[in-house]
Amino acid sequence: MGLVLNQTYVLEKILGAGGFGITYLAWDTRYTRAEGMCAVKEYFPREWAVRCEDGLRIISRGWKVDRCYRHGLEVYINEAKILRGLHQDETIVDIKDFFLENNTAYLVMEYVRGRTLAEYMAIEQKAFPVWKADEIIRKIAASLAYVHQHGLLHRDVSPDNIMLLDNGAVKLIDFGATRQFVLDETTDMSVVIKPGFAPLEQYSRTGKQGPWTDVYALAATYYYIVSGKKPLAAVDRCAGSKIKPLHQISPQISPEVSRVILQAMEIDYTKRIKSIKQLIDMLERAEKASGMREGTPHVLMKMNNQIRKWKFDSGRSIRIGRSGKECDITVEGSRFSRIHCEVRYDRASGRFIVTDCSVNGTYTEHGLIGKGSSAALRPGESFYLVARENQFFLEVK
Q: Would you kindly state where each structural domain of the chain is located, as residue ranges?
C-alpha cells in the first residue's frame, strides 16, 4: 500500500474490514519497524460513504445519507476521546493516537499478536477448560465494567473480539461497534449483528440497549468457549427454539452456574441480569454453592517457556524468591528479592492473598501491590514479579 497518514503512519496492508471501518497494519515512522508497528482504524461506513479517486478522501454517498455519515463521525470522534482515556486498563486494546484527515477519522491502536478465541477453538478443535474460560471471562468482565462506567457499550463482545496474546495476556479488541450510550437516544445507523452472541434488542434500531446488552454477549461467549457449541441466535429463540442448558453439554458446569448463564442470556432484557458486576457476583455465589471452587488451589508458573505447578498444603503459604533455602518457588536473577512475595489461599473467602515483600515489585493486573501490602485475588487471576514474563496464575481445580 505505502500510503502515509498524518505524515507519520505508513499503511502496509488491510487487517480487516467491517460495516463501519477498515483496519490496517501500519508503521509509526517515529520508531524503528520493530518498535513502531501499530494498527490504524479508519472510519468508513460502507452504507453511507465512498472513496474518492485519489484513493484517500472519503465522502458521503449523497445528501440523503450525509446526515448519517456526519452523525456517525461525531460519535466515532467522541468514542475515540473516551477510549484514549482507558489506557490504564491492560485488557482493553490501547489507543495511542487519534486524528482527522481525508474527511474522516483514524484511530491508532497497539498491534496485538495472538489468536482470537474463535481462531483458537477452530485450530485446536476443542473447548476451553472451565478454569481457563473462567479466567478469560473475569478479565473481560472487569474491563467491560470499566467501559460501562465511562458511558460506553462494546456491543460486539464475541469470541472474534477477544484475543489470547502470545505472552498469555487477554485483550478485548474492536470497539468499532461501540456507541456512546445516551439513555433513550436512537439513530438511523445500521445495527451490527453477530448471531448467537447478539441479544434481541440489537436486531432493532429502536431496541433498548444498555450494559445488559454486553451481559448477554459475554454470557454467550462463555457458553461457547466452555461447550464448543455456538448458542442459538436470539431471533430463533424468540421464535420458539430452545437453547440447551450449559450443564447438559458440559458436565464440568454445575446446574447452578448454568442457570446464571441462562439468566444472563434472557431474551427479554427486563428479565436479564442487568450489569457485569451482578453477573460476576451471581456466578461466584453459584460456584460456591455448587462446590465448583472447592478444588485444590494451585500456583501455576509460566517463565522462560516452562510451566510448573505448586499446590497449597493446608494452612501453608507459598514463598517465591531468589533464596532456595527460604522459598518454595525459586526464581533466578538479580532483579528478584531473596523472598520476593508470599501467597496463601483463604478457603473461607475463596481468595488468594498475595503479599509483596520486595522493593522491585509484585504486580497484579491492577498495578503494583507495594512492599508490605497484600492483594486478594480470585482464582483465574494472575500476578507477576518485576515484569510480565515472570507471571504466576492462580487456580482452583
A: 4-110, 114-290, 297-396
